[in-house]
Amino acid sequence: MNVTFRCPPELEQVLPRPVPAKVGLPDWLRRMPATAHDEVLGVELMTVKKCAPFLDAMGYGFLMPLACDLQIDKGRLSWDWDLPATPGETYSRSPVALHAAAQVRGSPFEKGAAPMLKFNAFWTIELPAGWSLLCTHPVNRTDLPFRSLTGMVDSDRYTDNFINFVAEWIDPSFSGILPRGTPVAQCIPVRRESFDYRFEVMTQDETDAFRDTRDSMDGTAGVYRRDMRVRK
Questions:
Q1: Is there a contact between 176 and 72 (Cβ–Cβ < 8 Å)?
Q2: Is the entire prediction scored with pTM above 0.90?
Q3: Contact at 8 Å (CB) between 21 and 62?
Q4: DSSP readout, 84-147?
Q5: pLDDT of residue 90
Q6: What does the pLDDT read at residue 229?
Q7: Which class for 124: exposed (0-12), middle (13-18), buried (19 or more C-beta within 10 A)?
Q8: Nearest Cα to Cα of residue 176 among 99, 78, 66, 93
Q9: Domains of the chain
Protein backbone atom coordinates (compact mmCIF):
# COMPACT_ATOMS: atom_id res chain seq x y z
CA MET A 1 0.00 0.00 0.00
CA ASN A 2 1.31 3.43 -0.95
CA VAL A 3 1.05 6.43 1.37
CA THR A 4 1.72 9.63 -0.57
CA PHE A 5 2.92 12.80 1.16
CA ARG A 6 2.98 16.14 -0.64
CA CYS A 7 4.26 19.52 0.50
CA PRO A 8 4.39 22.96 -1.14
CA PRO A 9 7.45 23.15 -3.41
CA GLU A 10 8.93 26.08 -1.52
CA LEU A 11 9.02 24.00 1.68
CA GLU A 12 10.62 20.86 0.26
CA GLN A 13 14.10 21.74 1.51
CA VAL A 14 13.09 23.01 4.97
CA LEU A 15 10.45 20.57 6.22
CA PRO A 16 11.26 17.45 8.25
CA ARG A 17 9.64 14.44 6.62
CA PRO A 18 7.22 11.99 8.25
CA VAL A 19 9.06 8.82 9.26
CA PRO A 20 8.05 5.18 9.82
CA ALA A 21 7.18 4.85 13.50
CA LYS A 22 9.69 2.03 13.98
CA VAL A 23 12.45 4.44 12.90
CA GLY A 24 11.32 7.08 15.40
CA LEU A 25 11.37 4.99 18.58
CA PRO A 26 12.47 7.10 21.58
CA ASP A 27 15.91 7.03 23.13
CA TRP A 28 14.54 5.93 26.51
CA LEU A 29 13.31 2.70 24.92
CA ARG A 30 16.74 1.99 23.48
CA ARG A 31 18.43 2.73 26.82
CA MET A 32 16.14 0.81 29.16
CA PRO A 33 17.18 -2.69 30.27
CA ALA A 34 15.61 -5.82 28.83
CA THR A 35 15.25 -7.31 32.33
CA ALA A 36 14.98 -5.80 35.80
CA HIS A 37 14.89 -7.10 39.37
CA ASP A 38 11.50 -6.87 41.07
CA GLU A 39 11.95 -6.11 44.78
CA VAL A 40 8.43 -7.31 45.71
CA LEU A 41 8.64 -10.70 43.99
CA GLY A 42 12.37 -11.05 44.44
CA VAL A 43 12.92 -12.23 40.86
CA GLU A 44 14.31 -10.94 37.58
CA LEU A 45 11.56 -10.01 35.11
CA MET A 46 11.48 -8.98 31.48
CA THR A 47 10.66 -5.32 30.94
CA VAL A 48 8.32 -3.86 28.32
CA LYS A 49 11.36 -3.63 26.07
CA LYS A 50 10.83 -7.37 25.49
CA CYS A 51 7.04 -7.12 25.09
CA ALA A 52 6.20 -7.60 21.42
CA PRO A 53 2.69 -6.04 21.53
CA PHE A 54 4.11 -2.97 23.30
CA LEU A 55 6.85 -2.56 20.69
CA ASP A 56 4.63 -3.36 17.70
CA ALA A 57 2.15 -0.66 18.74
CA MET A 58 4.92 1.92 19.09
CA GLY A 59 6.44 0.97 15.75
CA TYR A 60 3.33 0.80 13.58
CA GLY A 61 2.32 3.43 11.05
CA PHE A 62 4.24 6.68 10.74
CA LEU A 63 5.07 9.72 12.85
CA MET A 64 4.31 13.32 11.95
CA PRO A 65 7.15 15.62 13.01
CA LEU A 66 7.18 19.06 14.61
CA ALA A 67 8.13 21.49 11.85
CA CYS A 68 10.77 23.48 13.78
CA ASP A 69 12.24 24.03 17.25
CA LEU A 70 9.77 25.43 19.78
CA GLN A 71 11.03 27.44 22.73
CA ILE A 72 8.81 27.14 25.81
CA ASP A 73 9.26 29.55 28.71
CA LYS A 74 6.63 29.65 31.48
CA GLY A 75 3.90 28.64 29.08
CA ARG A 76 4.95 31.06 26.37
CA LEU A 77 5.81 29.52 22.98
CA SER A 78 8.15 31.09 20.47
CA TRP A 79 10.12 29.97 17.43
CA ASP A 80 12.58 31.20 14.84
CA TRP A 81 11.68 29.66 11.51
CA ASP A 82 12.93 31.37 8.39
CA LEU A 83 10.50 30.23 5.73
CA PRO A 84 11.02 31.26 2.13
CA ALA A 85 8.65 33.98 0.94
CA THR A 86 5.98 32.76 -1.44
CA PRO A 87 3.66 35.23 -3.19
CA GLY A 88 0.00 34.31 -2.86
CA GLU A 89 0.46 31.55 -0.26
CA THR A 90 -2.74 30.58 1.54
CA TYR A 91 -1.44 28.50 4.46
CA SER A 92 -0.21 29.52 7.90
CA ARG A 93 3.52 30.11 8.30
CA SER A 94 3.34 29.24 11.99
CA PRO A 95 4.32 25.76 13.24
CA VAL A 96 1.63 25.96 15.93
CA ALA A 97 -1.74 27.61 16.45
CA LEU A 98 -4.37 27.71 19.18
CA HIS A 99 -7.64 25.81 19.39
CA ALA A 100 -10.19 27.96 21.27
CA ALA A 101 -11.18 26.70 24.73
CA ALA A 102 -14.85 26.77 23.71
CA GLN A 103 -14.19 23.98 21.22
CA VAL A 104 -13.60 21.49 24.05
CA ARG A 105 -16.10 22.91 26.55
CA GLY A 106 -17.88 20.18 28.45
CA SER A 107 -15.19 17.61 27.65
CA PRO A 108 -12.41 16.24 29.90
CA PHE A 109 -9.97 18.42 27.93
CA GLU A 110 -11.51 21.67 29.17
CA LYS A 111 -9.17 23.67 31.40
CA GLY A 112 -11.00 26.91 32.04
CA ALA A 113 -10.21 29.57 29.47
CA ALA A 114 -6.93 27.96 28.45
CA PRO A 115 -6.86 27.17 24.72
CA MET A 116 -5.68 23.91 23.23
CA LEU A 117 -2.54 23.72 21.16
CA LYS A 118 -2.63 22.84 17.48
CA PHE A 119 0.44 21.55 15.68
CA ASN A 120 0.37 22.71 12.07
CA ALA A 121 1.59 20.16 9.57
CA PHE A 122 2.64 21.08 6.06
CA TRP A 123 2.08 17.76 4.32
CA THR A 124 -1.02 16.47 2.58
CA ILE A 125 -1.53 12.72 2.91
CA GLU A 126 -3.16 10.43 0.38
CA LEU A 127 -4.18 6.81 0.99
CA PRO A 128 -5.68 4.30 -1.45
CA ALA A 129 -9.46 4.07 -1.84
CA GLY A 130 -11.23 2.57 1.16
CA TRP A 131 -8.59 3.55 3.72
CA SER A 132 -8.74 6.09 6.56
CA LEU A 133 -6.00 7.48 8.76
CA LEU A 134 -6.20 7.03 12.53
CA CYS A 135 -4.25 9.92 14.05
CA THR A 136 -3.39 9.72 17.73
CA HIS A 137 -0.76 10.64 20.30
CA PRO A 138 2.51 8.79 19.72
CA VAL A 139 1.89 5.43 21.36
CA ASN A 140 3.27 5.01 24.91
CA ARG A 141 4.97 8.41 24.73
CA THR A 142 3.93 9.77 28.13
CA ASP A 143 7.35 11.44 28.30
CA LEU A 144 6.18 14.17 25.92
CA PRO A 145 4.91 17.38 27.58
CA PHE A 146 1.74 17.36 25.49
CA ARG A 147 -0.95 14.84 24.61
CA SER A 148 -2.38 14.86 21.09
CA LEU A 149 -6.06 14.12 20.67
CA THR A 150 -7.20 11.17 18.56
CA GLY A 151 -9.11 11.55 15.32
CA MET A 152 -9.77 9.67 12.09
CA VAL A 153 -9.48 11.24 8.65
CA ASP A 154 -10.72 9.71 5.39
CA SER A 155 -7.43 10.30 3.65
CA ASP A 156 -8.47 8.61 0.44
CA ARG A 157 -10.80 11.57 -0.20
CA TYR A 158 -9.38 14.36 1.98
CA THR A 159 -6.12 14.64 0.07
CA ASP A 160 -5.75 18.30 -0.88
CA ASN A 161 -5.28 19.97 2.49
CA PHE A 162 -2.97 19.61 5.47
CA ILE A 163 -3.95 17.54 8.51
CA ASN A 164 -3.25 19.44 11.72
CA PHE A 165 -3.08 17.90 15.19
CA VAL A 166 -4.80 19.31 18.28
CA ALA A 167 -3.11 18.64 21.62
CA GLU A 168 -3.38 19.56 25.27
CA TRP A 169 -0.26 20.80 27.05
CA ILE A 170 0.03 18.59 30.12
CA ASP A 171 3.34 19.69 31.68
CA PRO A 172 3.06 23.30 32.88
CA SER A 173 6.51 23.03 34.48
CA PHE A 174 8.22 22.30 31.15
CA SER A 175 10.75 24.92 30.12
CA GLY A 176 13.19 24.55 27.27
CA ILE A 177 13.18 23.51 23.63
CA LEU A 178 10.87 21.05 21.98
CA PRO A 179 13.12 20.02 19.09
CA ARG A 180 12.32 20.02 15.40
CA GLY A 181 11.23 16.52 14.42
CA THR A 182 9.59 15.70 17.76
CA PRO A 183 6.70 13.35 16.90
CA VAL A 184 3.41 15.19 17.43
CA ALA A 185 1.14 12.39 16.16
CA GLN A 186 1.27 8.74 15.19
CA CYS A 187 -0.79 7.90 12.12
CA ILE A 188 -2.03 4.40 11.31
CA PRO A 189 -3.83 3.54 8.04
CA VAL A 190 -6.97 1.48 8.66
CA ARG A 191 -9.36 -0.07 6.18
CA ARG A 192 -12.95 1.10 6.42
CA GLU A 193 -15.23 -1.88 6.86
CA SER A 194 -18.15 -3.02 8.99
CA PHE A 195 -17.88 -5.67 11.68
CA ASP A 196 -20.06 -8.50 12.88
CA TYR A 197 -19.73 -9.59 16.51
CA ARG A 198 -20.19 -13.12 17.85
CA PHE A 199 -20.11 -14.32 21.45
CA GLU A 200 -19.48 -18.01 22.10
CA VAL A 201 -18.66 -20.41 24.90
CA MET A 202 -15.43 -22.37 24.45
CA THR A 203 -15.73 -25.95 23.21
CA GLN A 204 -13.70 -28.65 24.93
CA ASP A 205 -11.05 -28.47 22.19
CA GLU A 206 -10.87 -24.69 22.55
CA THR A 207 -10.65 -24.99 26.34
CA ASP A 208 -7.75 -27.44 25.98
CA ALA A 209 -6.00 -25.15 23.51
CA PHE A 210 -6.50 -22.20 25.86
CA ARG A 211 -5.00 -24.15 28.77
CA ASP A 212 -2.05 -25.36 26.70
CA THR A 213 -1.30 -21.87 25.44
CA ARG A 214 -1.57 -20.33 28.89
CA ASP A 215 0.65 -22.98 30.48
CA SER A 216 3.19 -22.61 27.69
CA MET A 217 3.36 -18.84 28.10
CA ASP A 218 3.56 -19.12 31.90
CA GLY A 219 6.41 -21.60 31.70
CA THR A 220 8.50 -20.30 28.80
CA ALA A 221 9.64 -16.81 27.91
CA GLY A 222 9.10 -15.49 24.41
CA VAL A 223 6.36 -17.88 23.25
CA TYR A 224 4.21 -15.17 21.70
CA ARG A 225 7.18 -13.45 20.06
CA ARG A 226 8.55 -16.71 18.64
CA ASP A 227 5.38 -18.60 17.62
CA MET A 228 2.54 -16.14 17.13
CA ARG A 229 3.83 -12.68 16.37
CA VAL A 230 3.73 -11.46 12.78
CA ARG A 231 6.52 -9.04 11.92
CA LYS A 232 5.15 -5.61 11.02
A1: yes
A2: yes
A3: yes
A4: PP-TT--S---SEEEE-GGGGTTSTT--TTPPEEEEPP--EEE--TTEEEEEESPTT-TTSSEE
A5: 77
A6: 85
A7: middle
A8: 78
A9: 4-34+48-81+92-200 (2.70.40.10)
